[in-house]
Amino acid sequence: MARDKHPRTTSWAVTGLGAVVTALGWALRPRSRKISSGVMGFGLAHLALGLLDMARPTVRTS
């Protein structure tokens, strides 16, 4: 039995993942600037995409 997922749930999951990865990159800052910059950029991109996905209108075909 397939469960219908609300589209906003996925957006929140992507945004939350982005927040966690950004915090991880921030924590890595004192050790390695290059790696932490890449990790933070990856996390910030997920934050931005998750928030943009929440703003997008949902189209239902049922």
The rounded distance between the terminal residues' Cα atoms is 18 Å
Q: Using DSSP, what is the number of strands? A: 0
Mind describing the biggest β-sheet? none
Strand content: under 5%
Order of helices and strands: HH
- Give the C-alpha Rg: 15 Å
Mean pLDDT: 87
Secondary-structure-derived class: mainly alpha
- Total domain modules: 1
Based on Cα principal axes, name the global outline. elongated
What share of residues is helical?
over 70%
Tally of helical runs: 2
Low-confidence stretches: none
Could you please describe the fold and organization of this structure?
This protein is mostly helical and about 60 residues long. It has one domain. Helix content is about 70%, strand content about 0%. It is built from two helices and no strands.
Q: Which characteristics define this entry?
A:
single chain, 62 residues, mainly alpha, 2 helices, elongated
SSE layout and pairings?
Layout: H1 7-27, H2 33-55
Short description:
With 62 residues, the chain is mostly helical. It has two helices and no strands.
